[in-house]
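Can you give me the bound-state structure? Components:
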Amino acid sequence: MKVGFLGLGAMGHAMARRLLDAGHEVTLYNRTASKADDLVADGARLARTPAEAAKGAEVVFSMLFDDATTQAATFGDEGIATAMEPDAIHVCCSTLSLDQARRLRDGHAERGQGYVTANVLGRPPAAVAGELFVIVAGPEPLRSRIEPALKAFGHRIFAVGDDPVQANLVKLSLNFMIMSTIEQMAEVFALNEKAGTDPRTVFEIMTGSFCNAPVHKNYGKLMVEHSYDYPGASVTLGLKDTEMFLAAGHDYRVPLPYAAIARDRFLAAMAAGDADKDFVVLMERARQDAGLK
Amino acid sequence: MKVGFLGLGAMGHAMARRLLDAGHEVTLYNRTASKADDLVADGARLARTPAEAAKGAEVVFSMLFDDATTQAATFGDEGIATAMEPDAIHVCCSTLSLDQARRLRDGHAERGQGYVTANVLGRPPAAVAGELFVIVAGPEPLRSRIEPALKAFGHRIFAVGDDPVQANLVKLSLNFMIMSTIEQMAEVFALNEKAGTDPRTVFEIMTGSFCNAPVHKNYGKLMVEHSYDYPGASVTLGLKDTEMFLAAGHDYRVPLPYAAIARDRFLAAMAAGDADKDFVVLMERARQDAGLK
Amino acid sequence: MKVGFLGLGAMGHAMARRLLDAGHEVTLYNRTASKADDLVADGARLARTPAEAAKGAEVVFSMLFDDATTQAATFGDEGIATAMEPDAIHVCCSTLSLDQARRLRDGHAERGQGYVTANVLGRPPAAVAGELFVIVAGPEPLRSRIEPALKAFGHRIFAVGDDPVQANLVKLSLNFMIMSTIEQMAEVFALNEKAGTDPRTVFEIMTGSFCNAPVHKNYGKLMVEHSYDYPGASVTLGLKDTEMFLAAGHDYRVPLPYAAIARDRFLAAMAAGDADKDFVVLMERARQDAGLK
Amino acid sequence: MKVGFLGLGAMGHAMARRLLDAGHEVTLYNRTASKADDLVADGARLARTPAEAAKGAEVVFSMLFDDATTQAATFGDEGIATAMEPDAIHVCCSTLSLDQARRLRDGHAERGQGYVTANVLGRPPAAVAGELFVIVAGPEPLRSRIEPALKAFGHRIFAVGDDPVQANLVKLSLNFMIMSTIEQMAEVFALNEKAGTDPRTVFEIMTGSFCNAPVHKNYGKLMVEHSYDYPGASVTLGLKDTEMFLAAGHDYRVPLPYAAIARDRFLAAMAAGDADKDFVVLMERARQDAGLK
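Here's the bound-state model for the whole set.
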């Protein structure tokens, strides 16, 4: 397919690479153009603006940082919406607020353009290996039309609904699972530590028995080792994601007490000066409340 | 070893069977004696009182229902403490409150008897297969002395500390992981359901990616299928365990906000008439708050 | 003084009346012009646009419905900012989000115009009687310059700081005191009702002893009488105010657990179809959780 | 009436004094007998045991420290239950757990003795002046029969039900109103302080407007002045009362989210070493979470 691709962070780069290697005709846009060098060397074209990347494309992927950058690259002066063909489809892969997803959906609809959300699960190495999970939502037949492209990087593709926003919500939900698992474990570790038991032993028992998912192992290990300084995801980002999840609760009128507590923990972490630490530093809020250290 | 064993529920029976099959000399006590029939047929002796089961034993296991039954079988008129040898060891495997664990520890210490907590993780089939995880706490050399017996049913044995209460707390912590994971998932499922996405799809994505532990799969499946009527563990039991965990938080002065919310959900479930349903029925509290159904 | 005044709801009308009667020269703007009839009959001038009301005024009051209406009437095409004199002062009396207060402050500053927040406490009859409390924040000497005007309707004037936003926050805080008092009382009433005690009796004891403030008496009475259908303030409004308070917690990194719970209660009330009821209907969430009715 | 009276703390002493001055025939018991000296000088009799104080009395008041002391003085070897006449009535005025109230009610019923709860509101000076509020619960005609005695110190008497436990619950509810008002104000003060506004100013506005009850004024003043060191009531006591309120929620299956948060704050205060400070020190938990100081 003829594919436009915006955003060459670690994840975006790996996805673009997969698309190129699968034989798609790829035109790239990235603010820092040099990130595209290796892909261009292998046959991708480089666009100077988002609009240029969208020109003539059947599908335009975006994998940009946040709501604001996505909005600008879509509906700004040189945004893709100015150049997309009537039957082209914008496939947005970023984790966005539901409000932003609605703006994309409605803005493209007004222009007679297609819009689908396709959020991905996995880390960059999984993307490189084509083993991402893809959560896709949007109207048929758009979902079917983009499937060949999604298969370039997606190992499994889950269709969750006809409204693109549904995929964004599933993605926010999965991020909430991470945040709230950190809080769960923080309570367990702090209590056992105060009772004289090494949290690492508790971690070993948990992850050796029925709490042995990556969400337990990856984050729990960082917690019991107090590895806060090389953030995979920062407190700032954790707060943002949690607040987007709570905003979804607002939109659909669903109380979310665990999310509310996670938010308060993140705020306390920000207040304690830990904005840039790994978000497992929530552990320290539980420890402080317990009078540890 | 010469072993006394109290309590032949599904779990206790499987553990006693393993002890017998491993060649230990086992004397059994159970309120309903007929539960011992097959074990007696294979060489176990049957005692008419807890005291009789303890007589001459090096180790006396108890796997009874709760605090009260354990207290009675230990320190009651015909309790094991009346008959234990000075160097015998009571190994209690039940999930108890920390207060009860302290009563056992201190009551045996006053009598010059040994006491160790050895909580088990796993279900009866795992016990039958000798694949339980054992969380053991108590002073050395008592822990080492009982190890040959523990190995009869325990695949892995985790020593968590010198104070028996530490093992009880780890066990309560693991139960809390279950309760709070149910609440996590309830919030996610209710919110997505209200947004029009089938919770079963969300469950599939979660358990297909980084939330794929038994704690997610086993309980999440019951939740999305609304299977509340064949309780593995009831709301009443979930409330009891959560309150024991909160009581531990009281004892060690550790705030436990997620546990507090789980408690409130269990109370609301009791108030709604769901005391005897499977505790995954917490799902319905989240759904009701969301105005579903 | 020469005064412009935007917004003739019940409260705004009473305040404008006080300004007029105190001898100030008042130019009014209201979307529905007829609301100004009696004031015009007594000497006020009527403007057709906000800008016209601001022309030549030393002070321009706004008492509009919300963030959006205030933003439009201030910085819109016919907004007051287009017509204010360089040394004129916009005094905003509405309950707004802190973000909106910052937009007003910064937008006027860019234009070299003055801005002060002056939130009022009290109901329209108190305004008519000139007995409002005024919470004022903004830089000196602006605060002093507007004081003669504030005295027209303000019985007591509290200066809380040099940044206008501080007054907005105090106002949101007082509204939070109301929401959280409703939740407090809801828990008390539901629990006692379930124990067989008439909540009206509990209300009488509370308000007869040390919980006898208007915040207890006014809202508690509606609660025990289940008077939900003639909303002084609706659930929708209560949710909005609570979320603005929580947003302030975000801005300053302050966890607010009671506010978070109030928000969840409001969401559950919305989900239950009570959006337009008086916000004391939170009572019914506590009752439902308790299995009452 | 012939009255026995147990417990001459500040409150009990004032109540006994009122009974004596009203012409009742009073026999006193207090662990430290000297506390009775002035009352004995004015005509009261002194008993050496609770039982002796109960002998021949129509009504026996108890105003003791807690569950345990009340239980011992009632059903212990020399407790009042050993000496009460069949138609005598035990009137318990202490703040007790509902479980203890039930033990008193049921224990007396087994013995054919009467039992009524009569909790009091007010401080010792109010008791001296006969201006207490009395919350009374128990079966008729017992309530009527004790009324002449209650009038000696009670300005207003509120009957809340036929089951004595109902009065205990109302008393716990009022104590909860105090704890939760402290948390409300702590959130408000911490947030405004971080926004640069002096909490004393906010306190002045609150208590100058619609939050002007004693519960606001008395505790709020201590909070904004950081007066933690001369405890009217300690964190330890606040935690105890809050946990008794939560236990009542358990008994009647009523979720109490605000109480749960207050409990967590008290635990964090204990963990921070503030067990013996005035319970308004909860303020410091909100401040710490906000990163203040």
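A couple of observations. The domain at 169-289 of chain D is CATH 1.10.1040.10 (N-(1-d-carboxylethyl)-l-norvaline Dehydrogenase; domain 2). The radius of gyration of chain D is 21 Å.
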